[in-house]
């Protein structure tokens, strides 16, 4: 942060001000709090009340890019209103979060967007208290049942890690004709495929895999993204009180 | 609408000053005017639509006439032929008349226009699609890009910090 402050020195500030239109300069004070600015719309030919209907229907992961479209877009993507609307529209997304242990005292967390199968590395979480110490050093394959109380079978995710440290995220798909679409297991997972296809009506699909090297998988969670900050804070209780 | 009942006609005047006659069966789908149809028909009134032009109203009417399962098809054609502007007009009209399903479909079409799932465009692509120019000072934008590249999602946290810092 300190280093960044020095980057944003007075020299650059001067240049920025010249680039900002006069109209904006007058409103700078107000914009710094809310970014709201008359004239600059999300989509020029639409009122913002309608544009936000469109933004709320974009896949969550695209927000990382679209927030750079303009200041208005950035402010919108970070606004609680947008997430409220997504909730109303039922476009709230669920991401899968993984916490891995790279080495002693070094944990990395990752998020997977099951829709686009894109991984995101999350900020480091230095102060982690393990909920369950007995999990430490658990050998071999790990598996969590990701089902929450409100999640139906088509949203069931399971995260596995094999001996080669390869983590796979699997999703249970309700399937009308299980034989026609073979599960997408590859070599390293074959040995357990019988265990995973307990019911003929459910096909487990590998929706994403990732090699975390020697990192040990410590924690994983599927979580609905109902506000902007959710994408960065998979589980607040994990962050409390370092020992 | 039952066929035994004689279908009434609701008259509209569009923003481009054209009179438009719409069957009651369609007009009841406009939530905004639904409750006034009886009064309007009895008194031979014309409902003004100051922000819906004739072309757009024709599209909305066409949409309302279709069965639910044919509507998607209609939208496909529209998108192929029409650039964003037509969809924007349609969204404004649908919102004004409160045709909920149409609002939903148009919003979804535009959002797919902006971004296709699995194919995430850069901000510049989005700008082109919606015809907007960046209003970030160039150096700020470069900094934001750099942050995104090196820090991934973490840059969100810093972006907030950076932007407000520069704008103070």
UniProtKB/TrEMBL annotation, chain A:
Q: What PANTHER family does UniProt report for this protein, alphabetically?
A: KELCH REPEAT SUPERFAMILY PROTEIN, OS02G0202900 PROTEIN
List keywords of the entry alphabetically: Kelch repeat, Repeat
Q: Which domain of life is it from?
A: Eukaryota
InterPro entries cross-referenced by the UniProt entry: F-box-like_dom_sf, F-box_dom
Pinpoint the F-box domain residues: 40-86
Q: Kindly provide the name given to this protein in its UniProt entry.
A: F-box domain-containing protein
Quote the Pfam families the UniProt record gives.
Answer: F-box
Automatic annotation (TrEMBL), chain B:
Pathway of action: Protein modification; protein ubiquitination
**UniProt cross-references to SMART domains, sorted A to Z:** Skp1 (SM00512)
**One Pfam annotation, family name?**
Skp1
Domain named SKP1 component POZ is located at 9-68
Output the InterPro entries linked to this UniProt entry.
SKP1, SKP1-like, SKP1-like_dim_sf, SKP1/BTB/POZ_sf, Skp1_comp_dimer, Skp1_comp_POZ
Ubl conjugation listed as a keyword: no
| Physiological role | Involved in ubiquitination and subsequent proteasomal degradation of target proteins. Together with CUL1, RBX1 and a F-box protein, it forms a SCF E3 ubiquitin ligase complex. The functional specificity of this complex depends on the type of F-box protein. In the SCF complex, it serves as an adapter that links the F-box protein to CUL1.
State how it assembles.
Answer: Part of a SCF (SKP1-cullin-F-box) protein ligase complex.
Q: Which PANTHER family match?
A: SKP1
Name of this protein: SKP1-like protein
To which species is this protein native?
Answer: Carpinus fangiana
């Amino acid at each position: 942060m300190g280093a960044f402050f020095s980057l944003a020195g007075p020299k650059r500030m001067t240049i920025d001000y010249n680039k900002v239109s006069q109209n904006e300069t007058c409103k700078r004070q107000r914009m710094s709090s809310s970014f709201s600015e008359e004239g600059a719309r999300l989509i020029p030919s639409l009122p913002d009340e309608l544009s936000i209907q469109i933004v709320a229907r974009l896949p969550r992961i695209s927000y990382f890019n679209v927030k750079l479209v303009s200041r208005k877009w950035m402010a919108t993507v970070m606004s609680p209103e947008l997430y409220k609307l997504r909730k109303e529209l039922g476009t709230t997304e669920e991401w899968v979060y993984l916490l891995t242990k790279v080495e002693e005292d070094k944990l990395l967390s990752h998020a997977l967007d099951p829709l686009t199968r894109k991984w995101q590395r999350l900020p480091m979480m230095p102060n982690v208290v393990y909920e369950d110490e007995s999990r430490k050093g658990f050998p071999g394959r790990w598996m969590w049942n990701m089902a929450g109380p409100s999640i139906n079978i088509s949203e069931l995710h399971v995260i596995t890690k094999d001996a080669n440290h390869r983590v796979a995220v699997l999703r249970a798909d309700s399937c009308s004709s299980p034989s026609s679409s073979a599960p997408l297991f590859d070599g390293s997972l074959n040995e357990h495929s019988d265990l995973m296809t307990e019911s003929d009506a459910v096909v487990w699909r590998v929706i994403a895999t990732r090699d975390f090297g020697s990192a040990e998988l410590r924690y994983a969670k599927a979580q609905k993204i109902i506000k902007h900050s959710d994408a960065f804070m998979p589980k607040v209780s994990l962050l409390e009180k370092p020992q | 609408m039952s066929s035994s009942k004689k279908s009434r006609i609701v008259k509209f005047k569009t923003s481009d000053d054209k009179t438009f006659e719409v069957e009651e069966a369609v007009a009841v789908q406009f939530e905004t005017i639904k409750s006034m149809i009886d009064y309007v028909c009895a008194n031979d009134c014309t409902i003004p639509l100051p922000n819906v032009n004739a072309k757009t109203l024709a599209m909305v009417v066409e949409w309302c006439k279709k069965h639910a399962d044919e509507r998607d098809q209609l939208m496909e054609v529209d998108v192929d032929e029409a650039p964003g502007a037509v969809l924007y007009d349609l969204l404004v009209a649908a919102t004004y008349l409160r045709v909920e399903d149409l609002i939903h479909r148009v919003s979804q079409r535009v959002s797919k226009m902006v971004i296709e799932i699995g194919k995430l465009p850069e901000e510049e692509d989005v700008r082109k699609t919606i015809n907007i120019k960046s209003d970030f000072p160039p150096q700020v934008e470069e900094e934001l890009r750099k942050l995104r590249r090196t820090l991934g999602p973490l840059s969100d946290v810093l972006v907030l910090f950076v932007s407000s810092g520069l704008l103070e």
